[in-house]
Amino acid sequence: MKTVSPFREITPTGDHVSVSFEEADLMLPRGENLAGALLVAGIMPFRHTPVSGAPRGPFCMMGACYDCLIEIDGVTRQACMLQVTEGMKITMPSARGSKDA
Amino acid sequence: MTSDYAIIGGGIVGLSTAWGLLKRGLRVTVLDGDDGSFRASRGNFGLVWVQSKGMNQPRYAQWSQESAAAWAGFAAELNDATGRDLGLEQKGGYDFHFSEETLEATVAKYEILKEKLGGNYPYEVLGHNALRREEPAIGPKVVGAILHHQDGHANPLKLLHALADDVRRLGGVILNGKHVVSVDKTDLFCVKCEDGTEVRSRKTILSAGLGAMSLGPMLGFKAPIRPQRGQVMITEKLPKLINRPSLIARQVDEGGIQIGATNEEVGLDDHVTQPGLSGLAAEAIAAFPALAKAQLVRSWGALRILSPDGLPIYQESSEMPGAYLVTCHSGITLAASHARFLPDWLEGADAAPNLEVFSEDRFSVS
Amino acid sequence: MLKADLIIVGAGPAGMAAARCAAEAKLSVLVLDEQPSPGGQIYRDVDRASAVRGDILGRDFTDGQTLTRGLQHERITHLKGAVVWQIEDGTRVAFTQDGKAALATGQRIILATGALERPMPVPGWTLPGVMTAGSAQILLKQSGIACERAVLVGSGPLLYLVATQMVRAGVPPLALVETQTKTDLIKSLRHVGGALRGWPYLLKGLKMLAELRRAGIPRHVGATHIAVEGDQCAQAVTFQIGNTKHRIECDVVLMHHGVVPNTQAARSIDIPHNWDDAQNCFAPKSDAWGRSSVATVFIAGDGAGIGGAKAAAYAGEIAALEIAHDLGMVSKEDRDTSVQPLRKGLNAERAERPFIDGAYPPYAGAITPSDDTIICRCEEVTAGEVRRMAGLGCLGPNQTKAFGRPGMGPCQGRYCGLSVTQILSEANEISSNETGYYRIRPPLKPITLGEIADIAKTETIEVRE
């Protein structure tokens, strides 16, 4: 994970709410695109692929590539199709091949 | 090109048989369809299954058992040759029941079959709690299951890939994108394709799935087969949730959970329908409630190849001796038998298995 | 079950224009929009973004508000966050919204699902920090997020547009690495007659290049051997100009070499497609009104063939007009009169396409990727593996999918389908048309089993008249 994210808000809004991603507590702008907000917060990668464990992050930002997958409430979702709401508990997807025990 | 065998149809049945013949040093040419062909070999459920087969014909139950017993050796040999692990797991499989009545009725039938098989039918009945110990994710609506220890599953696509690979390596010729239009016989068979390709052979096998409906009569077979659609679904890759396969769901080696299947008489229609998907999803959730949150990633419809009694047909043509019809709807389960034992029958060898009950004689003249 | 005269899938320019036109012809319209706000991708979140960032994004973007305002009509029901996952019988659409699946029926359907970026597989393209140029534009439009230390790679006017928007936002790209050559430009000059008819676009293009020059953005033209280096994320782009090797350290790589129609929905209902050599992609077959081989289903906008936002709006209106005529709300005479200016506008918009397609062809290195390049991102299948499967008798993508799994992941072939078709076509020495494409089946987008099982069984609700 980079220490400084290369993604920057040029018109930052003031209204941030608390959200967690794995163990990290984040303050993200309410109502904004979740994938974009996570990128600005320095979250990288979003997940590891089930096939080889390779790191992945958002690629298309339009709901077509399924690389920005995260998990909320036990359901795998595309971060780029969601908006930030207060108290979101986000984890990396638990989806994997049965190579794991 | 003159082969010992021309095999019409390059799916699992055709390739398993080709493989077995090649292992006996025979020359084989396989004629396969194209990318858009129906191909039950791509759409099946991947079970290597014994239970519930041959309830009315013990010889079929036995034939399935012989194949299941030979599967591990067959898979190992393919693995050694191609480096492909077929993902075979034979730890038993379930028949789930949502009511005590259906469970008891099935057990009664199994007992009758077991006797006819001389006791070789290792199954046990699990009540809900016993089943929960084996399958922690099982839902409360499942009252019990019959666990048959000879059942299992494999990766059917890896089997297809490995066979395509090894048949070529063993010197088999596979011609893709071919549509057979006629078969003539003088002293040799001459199989002609739409694009002009001709293959000459000593013997011919028709293992073209639903293609036998049109090609069968050409070779002197009744070929009373019909398509039956099965819709199947598969989820995203998930952490281990299901330990043993059943007809309702199995977790494939790649991690996704495969759910199936419908039984629809809709002709040559392999489309997927929303009511079909909804019904399958509901049943899967009834068996494994955690699946409600799983994302469905793919679905498909595939056409089973069914004879009137659902059993295989192994028949030599009386009109064209040397032409054989080989068709079944359990091509995965029977792959090992087709590879190991069927070639002896085709060659008329002493070791040939007794396949009389699978001849076309059992179908009355219509 | 929702019922309407017309169901429109997609709320980009084609969908929005069609909705308004149909509503004014007194049809009830249901718009199923997977995004939380209208505009599709090109006018992404235009209502909100125009106020805050309109000056950076430009008039071409903010003009989209005319269309979004057009959705405010009593006969239009616009469902946001509604993801379509199945279309049956040319009239019934299954979708999910807020975790609930539902059904809608329409007498007619317009598929206005737009375009996708053409897949551009190069070594390292799956690393975090590598994104499409379109996604950088989406981040800017919707969220006001800029990418620092970014390199733009590929070919096509979108690269220049994104670069100028980044410059205006105060976060200029490090460089442009462009794959088109001077020869491409010269060859495309035979289309210049058409291009001159589309002169506003040419002028815009020249202005953008001038702006980039003033901002001092380096351009490397005629690049080959493109790759992204990095361990856990993108760290540098490497490429060659002629025999000279180059390496630019960066944090973000934005890739683009054209857009292609998003054909998933059309393919899922077995609409035949044709390979378009000029645009290097498949496009669905439809008539001059946008009607497909399924009589009740129309296709409009970039999903029918790449033409841009304004062309999409015209095509949407043309389809809606024919549908209104179909349903007896517009006479043949009125239809034929009304369509004249629309066809004129559409042809003018399409005029510069051949020039752009010729001047900015896809990057050859991505059309013929090296063996070790991943081409299926979801299942991590390489180009070499696909070539090997061609050798095992896989004549088309469906057998290839069965043998090696490309196309089986959640993106359902959106980012590998064209690559697989083209690799097979080359390996088997048959045309892309003959090679074909993946068989697309529902769900069009992944949906939970719970939603599918619980499909809302409600009374039929007529969409507001």
Task: Give a quick set of tags describing it.
heterotrimer; B: 366 residues; D-Amino Acid Oxidase, Chain A, domain 2; eight-stranded mixed β-sheet; four-stranded antiparallel β-sheet; 10 helices; 17 strands; 30% helix; 26% strand; C: 465 residues; alpha/beta; FAD/NAD(P)-binding domain; Arc Repressor Mutant, subunit A; five-stranded parallel β-sheet; 24% strand
Describe the structure.
- The complex is a heterotrimer of chains A (101), B (366) and C (465).
- Chain A has a single domain, classed as Ubiquitin-like (UB roll).
- Helices cover 7% and strands 30% of the residues of chain A.
- Chain A has one helix at residues 34-40; strands spanning 7-9, 16-21, 24-29, 47-48, 55-56, 69-72, 75-78, 89-91.
- The longest helix of chain A has 7 residues, at 34-40.
- Residues 97-101 of chain A have low confidence and may be disordered.
- By secondary structure, chain B is α+β, with helices and mostly antiparallel strands.
- Chain B folds into 3 domains: 2-78 and 156-224 and 309-362, 3-Layer(bba) Sandwich (FAD/NAD(P)-binding domain), CATH 3.50.50; 93-149, no CATH class; 226-306, D-Amino Acid Oxidase, Chain A, domain 2 (2-Layer Sandwich).
- Chain B contains 10 helices and 17 strands.
- The longest helix of chain B has 25 residues, at 58-82.
- Chain C folds into 3 domains: 2-116 and 260-330, FAD/NAD(P)-binding domain; 121-256, 3-Layer(bba) Sandwich (FAD/NAD(P)-binding domain); 364-430, Orthogonal Bundle (Arc Repressor Mutant, subunit A), CATH 1.10.10.
- Chain C has 19 helices and 24 strands.
- In chain C, a hairpin with a 4-residue loop joins strand 18 and strand 19.
- Chains in contact: A-B, A-C, B-C.
- At the A-C interface, strand 1, helix 1 and strand 5 of A face strand 8, helix 5 and strand 9 of C.
